[in-house]
Amino acid sequence: EIDIMMTHGPPKYRLDRTAGTGDRFGCAHLFRAVRRSRPKVHAFGHAHAGCGAEMVNWKLNVEKDLPPDDDGEDDGMSDKWMMRGQVDGGVRGLEVGNLRPAQETVFVNAALMGEDQELRNLPWLLEMDLKLG
């Protein structure tokens, strides 16, 4: 039961595009780990051009393991495993209820530096009510 996951880099398919070419460089193994554990929030950085937030609603009753990503192509595979929505201005309450792991995950790419290595982005602030004990 993970509420908050923090990693240095992004998972594949989530706010992981490079500037210019738009290639994805996130980690497919990390994506699988996030898909398996479905935390309420996954915060990361490193992908400077992908700064932002996105909410993913995980589809229920699907196979537990993702197919291998051998070809490196973004073939839309991620759409088979989730529904997504952009976070604009603020995030509504997460739909978690009594489901464990969470039904939704907010992905936050909190990279502060721009592609020019200058401070370009504002920090993110997330408020969450977490159950103690």
Q: Mean pLDDT, nearest integer? A: 75
Q: Please state the structural category.
A: mainly beta
**What is the makeup of the main sheet?**
5 strands, mixed
Distance between the termini: 12 Å
The number of distinct helices, counting runs of at least 4 residues, comes to 1
Gyration radius (Cα, Å) is 15 Å
Shape: globular
What is the quaternary state of this protein? single chain
Q: Percent of residues in beta strands?
A: 15-25%
Helix content: under 10%
Secondary-structure element order, as H and E?
EHEEEE
Which residues form runs of ≥5 with pLDDT under 50? 63-81, 93-98
Describe the strand arrangement of the main beta sheet, using strand numbers: 1-2-5-3-4
Q: What's the total number of strands?
A: 5
What does this structure look like?
With 133 residues, the chain is mostly beta strands. It is 8% helix and 19% strand. It has 1 helix and 5 strands, in the order βαββββ. The protein has a 5-stranded mixed sheet, with no helix packed on it. The longest helix has 10 residues, at 28-37. The protein is globular. The chain starts with a strand and ends in a 24-residue tail after the last strand. Mean pLDDT is 75; it is low at 63-81 and 93-98.
